[in-house]
Amino acid sequence: MGKGLFKPVLMLLILIFAAVATVQAGSPQPEDGKTGILLVTFGTTFPEAQAAFDNIEKEIKAAFANTTIQWAYTSEMIRDKMAQQGKTAHSPLQAIEEMSSQGFTRIFVQSLHTIAGYEYHDLVKTVRKFEHRPGGVKKIAISGPLLSSPEDMAKAARAVREIIPEDRASHEAVVLPGHGTHHPSNAAYPALMWRLQRDDKNIFIGTVEGYPGPEEILAQLEKNNISTAWLMPFMSVAGDHARNDMAGDGDDSWKSVFEAAGIECKPVLKGFAEYDPFVHIWVSQLQTAMDQSGSVKF
Ligand code: CO
Question: In the chain, how many domains are there?
Fold first, then answer.
């Protein structure tokens, strides 16, 4: 390079640097859309069970104050019943499409399911449809369900111990029927029970639709010479399964099966989502999803 060229080249470089700096300072932030949280649950038609949803919304709102929260329901039966009551009840697909048309570009979907069963996997498929769609939604991530990782399992075990009523004596059993499924993820229930029983041999997790059921749990209660059992649903809301299958007066309810074997039952009709230690597991999953936003967990 000749000496005569040095000055013009230097000037050109300065101009380029200045131009790049101006573009960077003047360009709009990439955050040009809205961020929304979509809470997805099976749903319930029991008005008494609504307390669980109210508590979830309150806790999520407190943790993510500036983020819009919307709900979707995986159960068509529940959506139909809600619609009959004049309530808005979207499927996850409808909710995401609506959020997209409302200008939400970043959507964090939180599964409020307990285990990663059929409903959770259907939700993953729905979310995936939006993953690489041009325009609209730029980032979509899914987190949850409650029992997602060994860490969540440990947190859930601690949460169970925190919500056990204070007047339960250690020789009394605490039986927590979960929903249960034929999906392999049903294994999460006995896995959680295994953790709990390392510290307290009289805590049992069963299922109303999977394994173990009330008869299997009864055999364990008898083995431990249990005469009193607290019945607490291991379901987010205390709806039909908790009120009828667990604590109802029908012959095959858990309460009736245990009472027929001479075990006194003390049902507690509260869904686990009415207790903050459980909701906080979902809150921290959502927080992690936001921290890692961009990477979608499947
Ligand atoms: Co069911």
Answer: 2
